[in-house]
Amino acid sequence: MTAQTTRPLVRRATRADLESLGRLGALMVEQHHQFDERRFLAPTPHTVDAYAAFLGTQLDNPAAVVLVAEHDAQVVGYAYAAVEGYDYVSLRGPAALLHDLIVDPAYRGRGVGQALLDATFTALVPHRVPRIVLSSAERNEGAQRFFTRMGFRRTMIEMTRELDGGT
Question: Looking at domain 9-149, which CATH architecture does it have?
Answer without folding.
Answer: 3-Layer(aba) Sandwich (3.40)
